[in-house]
Amino acid sequence: MENVNQEFTPMPRIGDKAPEFKAVTTQGEINFPSDYQGSWVILFSHPADFTPVCTSEFMTFANMEKKFNEANCKLVGLSVDGLYSHIAWLRTIKEKIEYKGMKNIEVTFPLIEDITMNVAKKYGMMMPGESSTKAVRAVFFIDPKGIIRAIIYYPLSLGRNFDELYRALIAMQAADAFNIATPADWRPGDDAIVPTAGSCGTAKERMENQKDIKCHDWFFCTKPLSKEAVEKAIFKK
Question: What digits encode the pLDDT tens for the residues 72-82?
């Protein structure tokens, strides 16, 4: 019989304010998300230290950290391991692990100690059907106002696609900066989708007044958006 007294914490959703917490990390204490106000943040969880998939992911995140930072995005990691385990694991990565040409990789972004699982539960990272003792591979994109903008979950066995994480970050920032949407597989320099016209008449007027807009039908219009314009709007100089 199901235990009706089992603690239940609803998962945060896109559009919610990011749940607040204070935590000890490998880079000192943090107050989240207030410490990151004004920046995008990728908060991500991994199942456990000293595991191979997680090691490959942390090396990749660390290798790409400058690229994320230049797009006004900070990285914050989490697992339910303790601080000393985190420190020993990150030292091992730097001193011993070479993978896909990456070596001497130093992880300088914070890795949260969450042995109480307090943060993992707040963010719905614990999924008993997958594991009751390890966090799944969750990714939360949080904007400069502390709002959750996107959520991606992966099972324990599946390493994340970092090109997609970076692509999603840039696409969301471009959507904010230019009041557009991005089509499938969009990358900077590709055409963007303009807000849907309210009627066929509006679409016709739009096409006549703005020659750069191409309407495939009344509900599906695109316009050029140069890679240079996107980079100017997003990247730190």
Answer: 999 999 988 99
Q: Is 96 exposed, middle or buried (0-12, 13-18, 19+ CB in 10 A)?
A: exposed
Based on the residue annotation, tell me whether 54 is a catalytic residue of this protein: yes
Catalytic residue among 54, 73, 215, 221: 54
Extract the tokens encoding 31: 């107050």
Residue 204 gets the label, from left (phi > 0), alpha (psi -120 to 50) or beta, of: alpha
Which residue has tokens 């990691």? 77
Predicted confidence (pLDDT) per residue in 27-78, tens digit = 999 999 999 999 999 999 999 999 999 999 999 999 999 999 999 999 999 9
Cα distance between the two ends of the chain: 59
Residue 3 lies in a domain: no
Question: For the chain, how many residues are written?
Answer: 237
Cβ proximity of 153 and 136 under 8 Å: yes
- For 41, list phi and psi in degrees, rounded to 5: -135, 135
Residues 125 and 96 grouped into a single domain:
yes
User: What's the domain count of the chain?
Assistant: 2
Give 87's contacts (C-beta < 8 A, 6+ positions apart). 26
Same domain, 30 and 142: yes
d(CA 14, CA 150): 6
